[in-house]
Amino acid sequence: MALLPFLERLRQGPLVADGAMGTMLHQAGVPIDTCFDALNLSDPARVAAIHRAYIDAGAELIETNTFSANRFKLANQGQAEQLAAINRAAVELARRVVDAAFKPVYIAGSVGPLGVRLAPYGRIQPEQAFDAFREQIAALAEAGADLIILETFTDLNEITEAVKAVRAVNPSLPVIASMTFTRDDRTLFGDAPREVANALVAAGADVIGVNCSGGPSQLARIAQIMRAVEPDALLSIMPNAGFPETVSGRVMYPATPEYFGEYAAAFADIGVSVIGGCCGTTPDHIHEMRQVLDRPRRTPSPLITIPTMNGHDHLASPEQPTELARKLAAGKFVATVEMAPPRSFTAQKVIASAQMLQEAGADVVNISDSPMARMRMSPWAVCHLIQDRLKMETVLHFPTRGRNLLRVQGDLLAAHALNVRNLFVVMGDPTQIGDYPEAHDNYDVVPSGLIQLIKQNLNAGVDQAGNSIGQPTSFLVGCALNMGAQDLDKEIKTLRKKIEAGADFALTQTIFDPAKVEHFLKRYEQLYGALKLPLLVGILPLYGSRHAAFLHNEVPGIDIPDAIRSRINAAGEVAPKTGIAIAQELLLSLKGMVQGAYLIPPFGKYEMAAEVLDVIAEPA
Question: pTM for the complete prediction?
Fold first, then answer.
């Protein structure tokens, strides 16, 4: 059937593209280490069946099975000499399927990254990349592709060479240029959506966009930024079916076809011209998007929000709130457990303990920084390892002591780069009590000042000196609170400073008497009105009589009632079990008064914290 020129068709309304090819081939039984592109020659019927399924689902554009059919990737599969034949066969195969379907469908020649790094990040020069792209694109164009789609690129320099190659092969051949983004809404090399959109338009792409990355929600956010900075550009959006998850050894994508349908409407409202799918999407996803887009709509999708400019001439694309932030905002009771980093560079035991706590019901774990001023592994590394291996959020303890302003800000950016975004800002233990009493103890900023720096500077996209840091950070910041302080009004005044600076929650000193919490809250209300800051109250399971005596007599701010000390003293050998029972009782009595518990296990005995959590565990 006769086709309108591609760009003219896009101006008539959204065009639905196909979904994943690799996902479908793998589901059809093709081993993951197979050269998928070579199937155009060795098993064309299998590829053709997938094309036909997408056309039947309503796709108006199908991509050739040539994502990796360039000289570098084919050489790794021993197929380099077949480059031209593979690419030509892919277009011819797609054309036969389209002709047999008797539907107006465009064929896009799919071109992915070369699989090698370009200078200055690698040893391949731009002219070498250009030659490799031109070689593949020429084969696709000569075979009759209606357009070229450059997809899943991470390097702006590389995709620019690819666009140049399309123009060198055929200046009038339409080209879609699409980048992929990480969870922080930046490319692998740190480019923000604004920079990507500007660069792709400047390179001469007819359609710009984003594919792969996360699910539809993330790509809707990025699409809005691209639309705002390049309002005249045509957009293409092809998301993954969510972030992949491994279930029983299989990689699964969680986003349903219905969910994709909802976001198809949102994409159309943003003004996206090409709407398709990437990894994990199937003909069912495409069919649902087709159905939704074919229905008349009178009101914009409620799924979209409008991005705003900040004061430093770049669009803010804030990350999604942390899971801890979402739970606190929803008013849920949160349980966290303090953990100390290891003394060596091996973290297996800490990770295993964190997993135990996760299974016991802890929402997050707090990783302390050099507790008691003793040398231990950097807590950023421990936080990152736990989050990466257990998919469990952490709270990074961030002391101001021993850090100047340069180090403070650099360390915070490093934490954010590791996706550690929950912070607990404290002064920190003085070095004179630890292993290195001669170590310097200087600091440039107090906790309330650091909270302000994080929330009002870094989270706004600038450093303390007012210089842009590009993408704003998205830290959730906690502060310390002693509800048993001798001068309660002074402690409340300090808390007010922290709240005004932007504190999101507070972790309190250990409490053994719920009456102290009640008294603090009443006094705060008398002075400033009801306290709205979420409080996670410190609960420390007592290990024995000597432990209780030490805490009561030598740790400022801790006061253990006589009844509890008598109970521990009388427990004898079962004192740890009694300490757990006392902590459970405290937890239950505080649950209706505060928003969370901050468990502090004695002597690294994390199993005691796990047992305390049993009392609030959800029933199976």
Answer: 0.63
